Amino acid sequence: MAVSVVSDNTKFWDGLKKVHAKLPKGTEWKLAVASKDGTRAVNVLTHDSIAGVRDFFETHTGAHASTEYFEADAANAVGLAR
Predict the structure, then answer these.
(1) What is the C-alpha separation between 57 and 76, in angstroms, rounded?
(2) Which residue among 41, 44, 64, 78 has its CA within the 20 to 30 Å range from the CA of 19?
(3) What pTM, to 2 d.p., does this model score?
(4) DSSP structure class, residue 15
(5) CA nearest 58: which of 39, 50, 48?
(6) Over the stretch 6-23, which tens digit does the pLDDT of each residue have?
(7) How far is the CA of 7 from the CAs of 22, 66, 71, 76, in angstroms?
(8) What is the DSSP letter of 8?
(9) DSSP annotation string for 20-67
(10) Does the pLDDT value for residue 34 go beyond 90?
(11) Alpha carbon distance 33, 40 (integer Å)
(12) Is 4 helix (H, G, I), strand (E, B) or coil?
């Protein structure tokens, strides 16, 4: 999971939209959602490492948000494939 506090809503989402088709091999984007005011974002991706997701996000959105990265607890998630 990538949970972001967004400083530039337009540049953040434009950056993600541009690279959506260029995800690293083996990565799936499960969910991308923003708060109504655009200051918060939650993205759920599957990848073999948090470092890989962090590298991808920071390269494309790092200048436009402060993001924390977490491994999801799929066993206790609702609606997330196990």
Answers:
(1) 25
(2) 78
(3) 0.85
(4) H
(5) 50
(6) 999 999 999 988 888 888
(7) 24, 8, 24, 31
(8) -
(9) GGGPPTT-EEEEEEE-TTSSEEEEEEE-S-HHHHHHHHHHHHGGGEEE
(10) yes
(11) 9
(12) strand
Token couple for 52: 């890989």
Question: Are the beta carbons of 57 and 18 closer than 8 angstroms?
Answer: no
Whether 72 shows a pLDDT value over 90: the answer reads: no
Q: Please check whether residue 12 is in contact with residue 25, taking contact to mean a CB–CB distance below 8 angstroms.
A: no
Q: Give the per-residue pLDDT at 81.
A: 63
- Helix-helix angle 50-61:9-19, to 10 degrees: 120
Contact (CB, 8 A) for 18 and 53: no
CA 9 to chain centre: 14
